[in-house]
């Protein structure tokens, strides 16, 4: 029984019913997380041109987007704030009246227990130089000074009602510093998602428009070199040891090998972020009639799950969840 004609692989593919019973990978709506942008000062949603179908929300339009996601069974929403004013230290980030913290309390009130309210914990949207941390005298990103800012942000977000903090800044020691500060203030149940293996990627391009990024240059002194697989695994191991409840690989589709290896290495849940450029590529090709949009979206999500992601952040979360339910 080692080969044809004893082995007929096509027997398992003969009908939808048989294929359904032997399908190895599935996706559930609750395994999807919807990223949402909210911009200070907007009176109505503003389309993001490089991400067709995605908008910057106003505080008024945000609750219905959350309600729709919850209705579709999406597991959570990840909030990003776009402030009207920026400065060197990103002071809007930990201001209780800052756009992200206000939006968090609005969303937490809307969501109740229906989904997990998640917030991006990073300074880049709030700094006038666009870096994920504060700068030292020599102009480089100062790791340890940034940790103090992250701790302050974490407490502001937890107080605003965030259930899960997405530590996306790639500073060393960020998980341990934030965990200790939260615990000391009694926020022992606030979850920490560590963007453990976050690569310096060209696929973040459309996101820079989405958050009106002020960055000139790049993030290569803190985000990972795309050529490095082992280093990505090591980041995940370090973050798990620091107390991360969940670790992340980002982007998703260009790093499926890293995702698989992280899943096989750590014991905490592993999530993946299907980023803005991944979204934009499929939307652009579909708009040209070059690929079947729905099939491509579903296959992309399946590939990320198959590579080992327990959950996926995707701009298609609500739509894909609806497809799964229908
Ligand atoms: C940083 C952050 C970025 C993304 C999520 N969080 C941008 C970056 O690191 O430059 C990108 C997400 C996407 O491209 O969809 N706060």
Bound ions, cofactors and other small molecules, one mention each = ligand PBG
Q: Kindly give the count of domains.
A: 1
Strand order of the largest sheet: 1-4-5-6-7-8-9-10
* CATH third-tier fold name: TIM Barrel
Shape: globular
Q: Give the CATH architecture.
A: Alpha-Beta Barrel
What does the secondary structure layout of this molecule look like, with pairings?
Blueprint: H1 16-22, E1 32-39, E2 46-47, E3 55-57, H2 62-72, E4 76-82, H3 99-111, E5 116-121, H4 143-160, E6 164-167, H5 174-184, E7 191-198, H6 205-210, H7 230-242, E8 246-250, H8 256-265, E9 270-273, H9 276-287, H10 293-306, E10 311-313, H11 317-325
Helix pairs in contact: 2-3, 2-11, 4-5, 7-8
Bound molecules: ligand PBG.
Ligand PBG binds at residues 120, 122, 124, 132, 168, 204, 207, 219, 275-276.
Quick recap:
With 326 residues, the chain is of the alpha/beta class. It has helices spanning 16-22, 62-72, 99-111, 143-160, 174-184, 205-210, 230-242, 256-265, 276-287, 293-306, 317-325; strands at 32-39, 46-47, 55-57, 76-82, 116-121, 164-167, 191-198, 246-250, 270-273, 311-313. Residues 120, 122, 124, 132, 168, 204, 207, 219, 275-276 line the site of ligand PBG.
């Amino acid at each position: 029984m080692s080969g044809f004609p004893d082995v007929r692989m096509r027997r398992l593919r003969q009908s939808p019913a048989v294929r359904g019973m032997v399908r190895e990978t599935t996706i559930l709506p609750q395994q999807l997380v919807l990223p949402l942008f909210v911009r200070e000062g907007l009176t109505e949603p503003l389309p993001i041109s490089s991400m067709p179908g995605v908008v910057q929300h106003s505080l008024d339009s945000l609750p219905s987007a959350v309600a729709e996601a919850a209705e579709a069974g999406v597991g959570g929403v990840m909030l990003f704030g776009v402030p009207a004013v920026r400065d060197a230290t990103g002071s809007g980030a930990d201001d209780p009246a800052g756009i992200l913290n206000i939006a968090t309390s609005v969303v937490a009130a809307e969501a109740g227990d229906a989904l997990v309210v998640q917030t991006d914990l990073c300074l880049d949207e709030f700094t006038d130089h666009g870096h994920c941390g504060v700068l030292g005298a020599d102009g480089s990103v100062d790791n340890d000074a940034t940790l103090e800012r992250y701790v302050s942000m974490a407490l502001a977000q937890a107080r605003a009602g965030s259930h899960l903090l997405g530590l996306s800044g790639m500073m060393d020691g960020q998980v341990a510093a934030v965990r200790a500060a939260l615990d000391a203030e009694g926020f022992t149940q606030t979850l920490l998602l560590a963007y453990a293996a976050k690569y310096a990627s060209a696929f973040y391009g459309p996101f820079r428009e989405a958050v009106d990024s002020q960055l000139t240059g790049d993030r290569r002194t803190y985000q990972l070199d795309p050529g490095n697989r082992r280093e990505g695994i090591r980041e995940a191991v370090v973050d798990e040891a620091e107390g991360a409840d969940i670790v992340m690989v980002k982007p998703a589709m260009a790093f499926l090998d890293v995702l698989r290896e992280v899943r096989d290495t750590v014991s905490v849940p592993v999530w993946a972020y299907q980023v803005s450029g991944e979204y934009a590529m499929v939307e652009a090709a579909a708009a040209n009639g070059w690929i079947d949009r729905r099939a491509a979206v579903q296959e992309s999500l399946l590939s990320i799950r198959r590579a080992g992601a327990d959950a996926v952040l995707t701009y298609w979360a609500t739509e894909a969840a609806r497809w799964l339910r229908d």
